[in-house]
Structures are given as C-alpha cells and as structure tokens.
Amino acid sequence: MIPGLDQQPFPRKKKSRDSSDLTYTKPQGVIKYPPFESLDREAYSQIQNFGIYPFGEIGQYCAHIPYSSDKKDVFEKTGRESFHVFVYRFTDPSDNRAYDVMWDYVGGFVRISPFFKSRGHKKHKTGPAKMLDLNKGLRDVTFHMTGGNRVAQGYWVPYQCARAVCATFCYPIAGALIPIFGPTFPDDCIRPGTTLFGRMVIDELSALRRDRPVTRVKAINQPNTLDRDQSKI
C-alpha cells in the first residue's frame, strides 16, 4: 500500500475566524489546476521521502476559504471573495517539520509562504517580500492574505510565477512539490552550488503568458499506477 492512503481523509472540523482548522468537502465547479497524482515509478520514488498526505486523494477533497477584509487587494486582483483550494502536507526530512501546500484550483493562485519557511527564509529580508521586490511587476499580480483563517494567510502568487520562483531555491524539497508542480519540476529546478541558486529572480511576464505545463494534462489522463489495490513499489 502507498503510505498515507490507509489513513482517514482530512477531518471536517468547525472553525472560528482565527482557527487554523479547515473544513473539507468534495471539489465543486471547474477544476483548472488539479494535482498530479498519477505518477510513473521515477516520479513516485522522488516523493517517497516526504511523507505526502493524503497522496492519491488530494484531488478528492477541497477546502473553502472565505475572505473578508477592509483591504480590497484580494478582490481587486482576483475578482473573488472566497477560494476553493487543494491542500496536502509534506514533512521535510531535514528538520522533520510538516508544511501545508495550498493552491486555488480555479484561479491558480499558490500560497508560497510554506516553501520559504521550509528553506529557512522566514524573515522579511529573505522571504517572499524580498522575492517580490526582485521581480518587477510580480507584486502587482500577487496578493497578501492577512485576515481570516491563519493557515491561509501569507502571499499568494499566480501558478506559473510560483512554479518559476520555487524552481530557483526549492531543489532540496523538489520531490515534495511534484503533486502541485508536476513530475518535471525537479528537473526544472536550479541546483544548489550554482550561481543562480537562491537568487529568486524570474521572468515573471513570460511565466504569466505561458499556459500550464503539458505534462499536467498527460499526468491526469494516464491510468493511475498508484491506486489502493497496487502493492507498494
């Protein structure tokens, strides 16, 4: 059996305005940004060390996140006041801490704060704010969620821009990001020890113009080689 699939799905819990708990339901509407869960053996071997949960069922549950604030930043940039997101959790073996990956499957916005925290960029000078300053125009299409549920707070970046940014400094956890960014993501990452690693500079305009990777379409159309009935690879 695949690790994590014999566990119960994320529990449904009542949440207060400041609670970190999320309420999970079945996905609704058009899913433009589904997770990559149908992987070949090579891609699956790259995610094994990260204890991804609930891998194989990420796309079966979504969380609804309403957002209400005096700031009009979110509505002006997205045209929406709530989001439907996919969520999964991975454990970084370097510090044995768990991090939640979250993205809006309709608009494609990705919460990037956990990636920076995982790589030790927790302060303002080295975190998302610095990255936005380095990439002209990216702040204009990024919103900062400050109210509502704590687990959803932080910077949310358009999908292709988030993928491009993470490719500049997330190679050590690249396998953990395959369910959101696809099986080619590790190969697209800049390696540690090179001059460009960790600079967090991208061509954000090109990233915005590009469609999603073709590999995502191929992945979700492939037969599920990692279903419940298959023995552990």
UniProtKB/TrEMBL annotation:
It comes from the Eukaryota. GO terms for cellular component: MBF transcription complex; SBF transcription complex. SUPFAM superfamilies: DNA-binding domain of Mlu1-box binding protein MBP1. Residues 1-26 are annotated as: Disordered. Residues 72-192 form the HTH APSES-type domain. Coiled coil: none annotated. One of its GO terms (molecular function) is DNA-binding transcription factor activity, RNA polymerase II-specific. This is HTH APSES-type domain-containing protein. It comes from Bionectria ochroleuca.
